[in-house]
């Protein structure tokens, strides 16, 4: 349990702590509870060596009196600390115990930097041996007292500061070194930065993933439902980082007394379930002398506690709705499954076995009710789950069922150096075939292939309009997407910056319209007429240019005559063979250094309606990508200035994101193409202006389709099937779609080897014009893999079953691996293929006895070995 008081620390006195210890001993200790953790307020001043002293007011008979009492009850004791050294200790310049050559006045990092969230102290310079000696002296003292646990609060990056303006990492490592010889548990707090999860795991036993769960509403409650529900999205990110050796900490579990918790009974059960399935420590925040019967039933349910102590953090199937299924696979082949209803009214929640990786029937037990519910073939539906309620199940597969085990499951043991993802994974990819459907039956020539045409509607936020413009929609006149922009004043203008080799200005033609001056890259090109003496022409190309160098260009049109000037769309031409992957500014693949903020809900036409921004010169973004080119896309505005661009560490160009008037959304301010297909890094450094913004990066990669453009002529004698070669195995292709319509395999298209043939019978039925056929390729299982570069590195999986199959990626960068079953080499397999494949069946062993077995895979050759899925049949 964890005793916390917000009333100046007077509550955590000797008498109260002994009462809590006795209550735990009587009520909770038989169920495994063993820590009495004392939060902030236990100490008062320092000794002659700068080490914390317990409060004599709170502990008049000495701190050892309380510690000994707790230990005598068979329990352990925890206390609290924060990073840094106080200015008073710096000024006192006290000697460090056992190291007279070291003084507390010499330990602060210079120049002085804030150490904690509140600004109580300064960072310690851990590069100095005396600093480690100082921490060692405190840890030694704690060990002498009999301390078993240390909560280290206000750890950064985290605790509200993730920009490295505060950074306690060096002190975390120092404290870990000081505490480890004494076996003192080391818990970090609060809201630790996920980007440094591997660092926290290296040095600590646990880490708080969010802010305090307490509501800080004295006299009313300990917590509130929003403080519990906000943990779900946090755990969706953190779950895989908890496990043996280090645990995700959700803060105190306040479910023991309905009068003080601030939660309904359903919410209390949901909180206890979330802590249990997350393998989070059960730090009870209640006064243990006042636990009610329902609270005791939650805290002492042995089947639920067994889930918690199994140490297998659950993961969500999805967090897209308030009805969420969270699950984990246990060592005995069973699943723990929690059905949460986070909504405000009763609802049905369904767990599909396939979402868990299970094929086959299963027995289901309700763990809170301690009741067997029966056998279910393909899933379980809980009806009328209360608002903010939960059902907690144990799902035991029947014999002969198959289980898919993902690469990041705790049951998979890795030996050697392995990394999850790191750009070596494949997510779901959609690549488009740019299809032009023509009809030369009445004469003319079909357009040439090899060029992709992208249609940009007039309301695209990347188009800049100057002057007074309006939008007219639902016109019913045949305009593209049934709308146009229009202006009435001579001198009003549009401009659009694009990446490509050519562009068409497409608009209506009508007697009310006149001349438009066209400029490309600031150079006057021609005056075009949009006048038509009679009738109305829709989607007319009034200006087109091709043969531009592939790169950034700008087209500008200025109204010269006529009552109206209209813009319907642009046709942008780019070379074929390239696909674009857009990374939003908040993508994990983009790294920010310095002080950056995120602005959302702007309504300015930004990609996904948000940007990242920095104000200090020298602040920077960088992104490592795989491909042949990249665009830096941002807003342009008078408040912005210059940005220095580097590619692979080499300065390329200073670009300007300023704009004298108005605001430009989704503007390409830097572009590079023609890089060798591989790993590259773009870096942008703020040089001038009030702000630097990042909206998105567009990464160019070789298309998975060859060709990725095609022309089909409806003229009877010219009709022909279109054949496309795939850059992935045909087994990876999950669908082909035109808009929302999915093409039918065997009717609209066929596959043979790595080729897809689009049938002319399908193509002839399509309307003339430009369209995209979207080819979607599957991802690695759960969008992730583990990979190693070291020969001899291995993975091992223990199971009880009759058949085992290894499904993983194949790729040009892979080689051979040895596969062992029960320590016997069965087969050397080759994972090298000409193209990247997913979920390829590499090895199967059947006919095993219905006993325990071990699968072991060892890297032999190649640049990489990837692991994705192990599938086995239960005995």
What would you call the shape?
globular
Structural class: mainly beta
Oligomer: single chain
Low-confidence stretches: 1-5
Radius of gyration: 33 Å
Main beta-sheet annotation: 9 strands, antiparallel
The count of DSSP E runs of length 2 or more, i.e. the number of strands, is 66
Our estimate of the beta-strand percent is: 35-45%
Q: Given the structure, what is the number of helices?
A: 14
Enzyme class: hydrolase
Pfam families: CBM_X2 (PF03442), Melibiase_2 (PF16499), Melibiase_C (PF17801)
Domain Alpha galactosidase C-terminal: 322-395
Domain Carbohydrate binding X2: 706-779
Features:
875 residues; mainly beta; 9-stranded antiparallel sheet; 7-stranded parallel sheet; 14 helices; 13% helix; 42% strand; disordered N terminus; Melibiase_C; hydrolase
How would you sum up this structure in a few lines?
It is an enzyme of class 3 (hydrolase). Helices cover 13% and strands 42% of the residues.
